[in-house]
Design brief:
The protein has 212 residues and is α+β, with helices and mostly antiparallel strands. The chain has a domain at 86-151: CBS-domain (Roll), CATH 3.10.580. The protein contains 9 helices and 8 strands. The strands form 3 sheets. A 3-stranded antiparallel β-sheet has the order 2-1-6, with no helix packed on it. It has a 3-stranded mixed β-sheet with strand order 3-4-5. A hairpin with a 5-residue loop joins β1 and β2. α3 packs antiparallel against α8 (165-175), α3 (53-68) crosses α9 (195-203) and α5 packs antiparallel against α6. The two termini are 31 Å apart.
Length: 212
């Protein structure tokens, strides 16, 4: 259901807690992603005390939504598609233009071969801009000469189109990430799912007002 893609484009299975050393406490003792797809009430009802209240509330809302929805929603049902991606060799100035025009917060990054190799967030862009300014590079004309490559986050965690809404929400909670690309079996980029996409689905639920 989930996989990790490194900067070279290689895929490997995702295992909870070792995707990336983010220096944050684990949410649960789940040892493998397979546990996410099971209807394990003990795991689903864990208090997630180590997470922020927003992240915990987000997961609880998705859980409540999933329990009251007759059929499970899958990644392919809620993902944004088609997806705009950028090359590793894109400049900081070009990336900022895309963020400004499209209001994206997470941009998939591809190699020269078109393979997904990472994600660039608005925070990554801000870091690159600050570092460039500290190095004496200021203004869009100068940022056009600076590549985004050093600031791209990798490896990147991806989901299969068949991943369930609840499984995706739990992965976002576990890894404290805000977005996840959706890829096909042949590694083609199909779409993108952010927390905003998931919340958009939840608030459209007829019983949303009753959740307090």
């Amino acid at each position: 259901m989930f996989a990790v893609i490194d900067v070279g484009g290689s895929h490997s299975p995702y295992v909870t807690g070792i995707f990336r050393d983010r220096k944050v406490p684990k949410v649960s003792k789940t040892s493998a992603i397979e546990a996410i797809g099971h209807q394990d009430k003990t795991a689903e009802q864990s208090p997630h005390k180590s997470s922020s209240s927003f992240q915990t509330r987000f997961y609880e809302q998705v859980q409540a939504f999933s329990e009251t929805t007759p059929s499970a929603l899958l990644a392919r049902d809620i993902m944004a598609s088609p997806v705009t991606s950028l090359s590793l060799h894109t400049s900081l100035a070009q990336a900022w233009e895309l963020v400004k025009d499209k209001r994206f917060r997470h941009i998939p990054i591809h190699s020269q071969k078109g393979t997904l190799v990472g994600i660039l967030s608005d925070r990554d862009l801000a870091r690159g801009t600050v570092e460039s300014a500290l190095a004496g590079i200021k203004g869009s004309a100068y940022l056009a000469k600076v590549s985004i490559e050093p600031y791209v986050s990798h490896p990147v965690l991806v989901a299969a189109p068949e991943a369930t809404l609840l499984a995706i929400a739990r992965v976002l909670l576990e890894e404290r990430i805000g977005a996840i690309p959706v890829v096909s079996q042949d590694k083609a980029l199909l779409g993108m799912i952010t927390r905003s996409d998931i919340l958009r689905v939840i608030v459209s639920h007829p019983q949303f007002e009753q959740w307090g």
